[in-house]
Amino acid sequence: MAHPSAYVNSARPFLKWAGGKQRLLPQYAPIFPPREKIKRYFEPFIGSGAVFFHYQFPQAHLSDRNEKLIEVYKMVRDQTEQVIAALQGHRNEADYYYAMRAQEPAGLSSVERAARLIYLNKTCYNGLYRENSKGAFNVPFGRYHNPKICDEPRLRAAAAALRGVDLRAVDFAKAVETAVPHDFVYFDPPYVPLSQTSNFTSYNGAGFDYDDQVRLAETVHRLTAVGVRVAVSNSSADLVYDLYNQPAYRLIEIQARRNINSQADKRGPVKELLIVNYDGGCKT
Ligand SMILES: C[S@@+](CC[C@H](N)C(=O)[O-])C[C@H]1O[C@@H](n2cnc3c(N)ncnc32)[C@H](O)[C@@H]1O
């Protein structure tokens, strides 16, 4: 097998996640600080980790409130071959899928739980991880022709990129308590909904509501005051303009595509924001 570092530059997300940033990377790249000017990188809403895997900062602190997700990252990093072996035992069949979905995760080993989450993510409808209010995974079978349940090169590349990375299941505010100047923090929270009728809900059943958005803005203000460089993704809802309406911030418009809407006519381009508290960017 090749040395793990041989995979580092090809790492990409191994999960599909609501709000995944893969497609926005070309628009973010000129705005983010140059990689070599960042001492430590913090990403407190890691999701599928598209930004982290693109840059692969050597000193990274990745976190998410979703404990099951962080466990998957730890297992992929620390028990890569065991996760691969467990995934190879899974099948893309409806009956099998529903049996796996019904399994009580607490009765499984950490490796089995990680493989189960990856398996469900690859074979469920729309390929998205979603839980109901009781924390149970409730997405129906996806009926894909030949989903890549076990993408060995991608998992090994991810494991190599994650080596030495600090992984924690914590709230975003706790995750950035130790950030200091020369660090860079990228926040990608669940977005403020654009339409008045949507609820402020999140992907893991626990909700990310108005108060959380205010708390996030206050965290960003605190980091700004102590000289930490910060970038925040969010929607272009009025509340976002209001929360970051201060001279310290640039609100940069980003053209995104709605890609998790089941109604095809609502998949058109949509304006989002990237809010930054520093001048310049990578421009290369
Ligand atoms: C928009 S997604 C991140 C998408 C990610 N950037 C990607 O490319 O896939 C938001 C993430 O925030 C997490 N989350 C929600 N509330 C949180 C909180 N209070 N603290 C930390 N993470 C939270 C969710 O579990 C979810 O994984």
Commentary on this structure:
- This protein has 284 residues and is an alpha/beta fold.
- The chain folds into two domains: 4-67 and 162-276, Vaccinia Virus protein VP39 (Rossmann fold, 3-Layer(aba) Sandwich), CATH 3.40.50; 73-157, Adenine-specific Methyltransferase, Domain 2 (Adenine-specific Methyltransferase, domain 2), CATH 1.10.1020.10.
- Helix content is 32%, strand content 13%.
- Helix 3 packs across helix 6, helix 3 packs across helix 7 and helix 4 crosses helix 6.
- The longest helix has 16 residues, at 210-225.
- The model is unreliable at 1-8 and 201-206 (pLDDT under 50).
- S-adenosylmethionine (SAM) binds at residues 17, 19-21, 44-45, 47-48, 50, 64-66, 171-172, 188-190, 202-204, 208, 212.
In short:
This protein has 284 residues and is α/β, with parallel strands linked by helices. The chain is built from ten helices and seven strands.
User: What CATH first level of the largest domain would be assigned?
Assistant: Alpha Beta
Number of domains: 2
* Structure classification: alpha/beta
Global mean pLDDT: 89
Strand neighbour order, sheet with most strands: 3-2-1-4-5-7-6
Which CATH architecture of the largest domain would you pick? 3-Layer(aba) Sandwich
CATH topology (fold) name of the largest domain: Rossmann fold
Low-confidence stretches: 1-8, 201-206
Q: Give the fraction of residues assigned to helices.
A: 25-40%
How would you spell out the order of helices and strands? HEHEHHHHHEHEHEHEE
- Ligands bound, unique: S-adenosylmethionine
Number of helices, counting only DSSP H or I runs of 4 residues or more: 10
Radius of gyration: 19 Å
First-residue to last-residue Cα separation: 34 Å
